[in-house]
Amino acid sequence: VLAHEVPAKDPYLEISDLWKLYGDFVALRDVSLKVEEGEFVCFLGPSGCGKTTLLRAIAGLDLQTRGTVIQNGQDVSNLPPSRRDFGIVFQSYALFPNLTIRKNIAYGLENAGRSKEEITVRVTELLDMVGLSEQGNKYPAQLSGGQQQRIALARAIATSPGLLLLDEPLSALDAKVRVHLRHEIKELQRKLGVTTVMVTHDQEEALSMADRIVVMNHGVIEQVGAPTEVYKNPASLFVAGFIGEMNQLEAQILSENRLRIGKHEFECRDHDFDPGTTVVAAIRPDDVVPHGSDFVPDAGAKNCELVRIGDMEFLGSFWRCHLISDDFHGAELIADFSVNAVRRLSLATRQ
Ligand code: ATP
């Protein structure tokens, strides 16, 4: 080992070759994953893909059929939840209805045998941290859903666990509160530096909160990567279709960077397919841009195709346009055009 080589730090959480079977049904198939200390990782995938099963295996709430879970250097694979180091927030707020907010937050601290004075100080600090200092003496039913979820979060981090597990913590809330809380949870996580694993089926939530996204399907991990990575370079058609909108058009490979869709040739990313191979060309709607103010391609414009605009949906910051080309095997192409681009196009058609 050379003097300047810094040995790689062990991951905080390491899941190896994990399987979970329910009878004959395989809920997790040979899942392996490393999570670094302080990272925010999201498990994302459709209903039934195994996200919750994986989270529960990490917590020890359900034991895996095979495989290991190492947390902070310790093999916790067969430890009961009470002997593992985590805080958890569930979708349903799961606060104790008959205890005040302060008592709810104090629960774990009391179990850990902390002194009364210490608990009072810590609960006050946590209430302040989640912006609910005034609500300590109320009962859960007197708070809104968003406030209850903030309390659940405060309770989960009360004993400063090494790992925070979030099981769809926002999905029971209405859209506006959800977006607001996303931001708050992320801020808090950054401030505390606590390693966090969140389960969600909401791609926007995962894209906006995670350092890395683990995309799952049918009990296997399809891809692990930063949000921009899984969005820009999806590893499979499933990931391409699951995260964001994606046009998928049948195409034939012509060379290492050209392909044909219908009657037209386009440039594409470098690849290893042989010429003549039939593939699926995946094109993001926001990568489709209108060229030329009067439908004549700009000089030097690549991949130009003459299309008609069919339906248009106004989605606030952009228009989702359904483009039709007779030469695309009759397939429709979805394009997200900025409001300005559409203004330019409609001016052009009026002239
Ligand atoms: P959702 O978003 O709907 O919660 P998920 O990705 O979290 O989905 P899991 O709850 O992990 O999915 O379930 C994975 C698969 O395992 C599902 O097909 C589910 O039906 C099955 N499963 C989960 N728990 C059990 C159980 N106790 N007995 C039998 N099958 C189960």
From TrEMBL:
Entry GO MF terms: ATP binding; ATP hydrolysis activity
Pfam families: ABC_tran
Record keywords, A-Z: ATP-binding, Cell inner membrane, Cell membrane, Membrane, Nucleotide-binding, Translocase, Transport
Xref: PROSITE patterns: ABC_TRANSPORTER_1 (PS00211), ABC_TRANSPORTER_2 (PS50893)
GO biological process, one term: quaternary ammonium group transport
Highest taxon listed in the record's lineage: Bacteria
Keyword tRNA-binding appears in the UniProt entry: no
InterPro entries: AAA+_ATPase, ABC_SmlMolc_Importer, ABC_transporter-like_ATP-bd, ABC_transporter-like_CS, AminoethylPonate_ABC_PhnT2, Mo/tungstate-bd_C_term_dom, P-loop_NTPase
Name listed for the protein in its UniProt record: Iron(III) transport system ATP-binding protein
Source species: Shimia aestuarii
